[in-house]
Every structure is written in structure tokens, then in C-alpha cells.
């Protein structure tokens, strides 16, 4: 299941979100040539990625920041940028540009530290904006739990775009991070599940003051968990009008006698 958009349009231009999208892409393109040289690429990630063992030993704290703008491949980059685009603009609209930027950085730095605490002896470099973006997802869930999100479902014979509430999609995603984090040995590289789960929870916690200012439970009661601005309507949204099947005409009506052609 891949989220492709939400029905929660922002009321102002999300300059910081677009800036983050551009910055991540530009940085990735700058070191793309290294992918043809694995040794050089590994050295690059060892220098700028988070190495929990180094952080635990009291050094390389700057990598908590630099790692947030590095990605391990095209799919890693595109997946993160898709989630950033879907969930970032609404929180920037809610928080304002500066507060959103601080919120994003705090989630990313906190998620990195949570991964260090979860696996302090690891020497595998951790890179990616996933922890910060997980924080956006946690904040989004708190503010708009019933906002509609369109997901692309591909199950062999089933290919469809369906709308689901944010709590269902984000709750499932969070549950998978915790499940995979518990089931994956700490010495196995791949995905930093605890950075994802930790960033998600941290984002929810950091969003609480804004939720309270909006009214807290009263905000949910007023909006019923939906965005507090009109939802977007898309071309492929499901129509509320039921489909009526076309009925065939009875045989005695559909039969028309054939008139033979005349010659001459």
C-alpha cells in the first residue's frame, strides 16, 4: 500500500517543505556518481552517516544532522520525498514556516538519537530523512486523524486507488515499524525501524502544544477528526451515486422482423 496524496489542501505555500524536497534531491544528485565506486560510497556514508558506536563513545554528533540529508538509493529518496510531500505541507500550514523547520529538525535529531540508544554498539552507518518524516506523520495523526489519504493498492490482480482515514494508514505503518524492530536482530543492517518508530512518537509529543492551542479535544469534536478546511476533491474519487446496471430488453421486444431487400 503506497500513499499517493491526501485530501487536506494547505492554505498557504509550503516553502520550507519544498525547500527540503529540493535540498534532499540536490544533495543526492551530488554524490550519485559514487554509486559506481562502492568503496568510495561506503567511506562517504561512514563519514556523514550516523554510526551509533561513535555517538555512544562521545563523538561525531554532527552526523545526527548530516545523515538526515543522505539516502542509500533512488527508491529510498523517492519514497521519503513522497511522504514528505504528502504530510509536510499541512503541518507547515499549521505551524508556520519557522516553527515547522524547527519541528522537522527536532524530529530528525531525536529519531537519530533513539536509533543510537536502541542499538548503541552498531558500526553500520544510518542515513536518511525517514526519522524526521516519521515525526511529521506522528504530528499529522494527532492533528488530522480522520483526514482522507488515497493509497495505491497493488495485490497481483487487484490494482486500485482507495481512500482511507489517516489513523488507519499511519497506525498500520507505525505498527509495522514496531513489529519489525522487535523481530529484527540488532546486528542486521537494512532499515532503522526504531528511528522510524521513535520519530513518529516524538512528532506526536512535539505537536501536542499546537493541538492544545487549536482546542485539544474540542478541536477534534468540532472537526470530527477531519481537517478544519474543506477537503480536496479529486477526479478519481469514488462517486456517491450508485451505479445502475443496464437491463436487456425482453426477447419479444428486441426481435424485429427482417424485411427482404427488393431487386430493381
Automatic annotation (TrEMBL):
> EC class of this enzyme?
hydrolase
What Enzyme Commission number(s) does the record list for this chain? 3.4.21.-
Location of the region described as Disordered in the Swiss-Prot/TrEMBL record? 245-264
What is the membrane topology noted in the UniProt record heading this document? Multi-pass membrane protein
Highest taxon of the lineage: Bacteria
Per the record, the GO terms for biological process are: proteolysis
Arranged from A to Z, the UniProt key words for this protein are: Hydrolase, Membrane, Protease, Transmembrane, Transmembrane helix
TM segment ranges: 15-32, 68-88, 100-118, 124-144, 151-173, 193-212
Q: Could you tell me which residue ranges the Peptidase S54 rhomboid domain spans?
A: 63-207
- Name where it's found: Membrane
- Keyword set includes DNA damage: no
Keyword Cell division (UniProt): no
Q: Which Pfam families match?
A: Rhomboid
What the entry lists under InterPro entries is as follows: Peptidase_S54_rhomboid_dom, Rhomboid-like_sf, Rhomboid_protease_S54
SUPFAM superfamilies noted in UniProt: Rhomboid-like
List GO molecular-function terms, semicolon-separated: peptidase activity
- Provide the family line: Belongs to the peptidase S54 family.
Protein name, per record: Rhomboid family intramembrane serine protease
Organism, scientific name: Meridianimarinicoccus marinus
Amino acid at each position: 500500500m503506497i500513499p499517493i496524496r491526501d485530501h487536506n489542501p494547505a492554505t498557504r505555500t509550503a516553502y520550507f517543505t519544498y525547500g527540503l524536497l529540493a535540498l534532499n534531491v540536490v544533495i543526492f544528485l551530488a554524490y550519485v556518481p559514487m554509486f559506481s565506486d562502492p568503496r568510495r560510497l561506503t567511506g562517504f556514508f561512514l563519514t556523514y552517516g550516523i554510526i551509533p558506536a561513535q555517538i555512544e563513545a562521545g563523538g561525531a554528533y554532527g552526523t545526527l544532522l548530516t545523515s538526515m540529508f543522505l539516502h542509500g538509493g533512488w527508491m529510498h529518496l523517492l519514497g521519503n520525498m513522497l511522504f514528505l510531500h504528502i504530510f509536510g505541507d499541512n503541518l507547515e500550514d499549521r505551524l508556520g514556516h519557522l516553527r515547522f523547520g524547527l519541528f522537522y529538525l527536532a524530529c530528525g535529531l531525536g529519531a537519530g538519537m533513539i536509533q543510537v540508544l536502541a542499538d548503541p554498539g552498531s558500526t553500520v552507518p544510518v542515513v536518511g530523512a525517514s526519522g524526521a518524516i516519521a515525526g511529521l506523520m506522528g504530528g499529522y495523526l494527532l492533528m488530522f486523524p480522520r483526514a482522507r489519504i488515497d493509497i495505491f493498492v497493488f495485490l497481483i490482480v487487484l490494482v486500485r486507488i482507495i481512500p482511507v482515514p489517516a489513523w488507519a494508514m499511519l497506525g498500520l505503518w507505525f505498527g509495522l515499524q514496531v513489529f519489525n524492530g522487535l523481530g529484527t536482530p540488532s546486528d542486521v543492517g537494512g532499515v532503522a525501524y526504531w528511528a522510524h518508530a521513535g520519530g513518529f512518537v516524538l512528532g506526536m509529543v512535539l505537536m501536542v502544544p499546537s493541538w492544545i492551542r487549536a482546542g485539544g479535544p474540542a478541536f477534534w469534536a468540532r472537526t470530527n477528526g477531519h481537517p478544519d478546511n474543506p477537503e480536496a476533491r479529486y477526479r478519481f474519487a469514488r462517486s456517491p451515486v450508485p451505479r445502475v446496471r443496464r437491463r436487456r430488453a425482453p426477447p419479444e421486444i428486441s426481435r424485429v422482423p427482417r424485411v427482404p431487400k427488393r431487386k430493381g
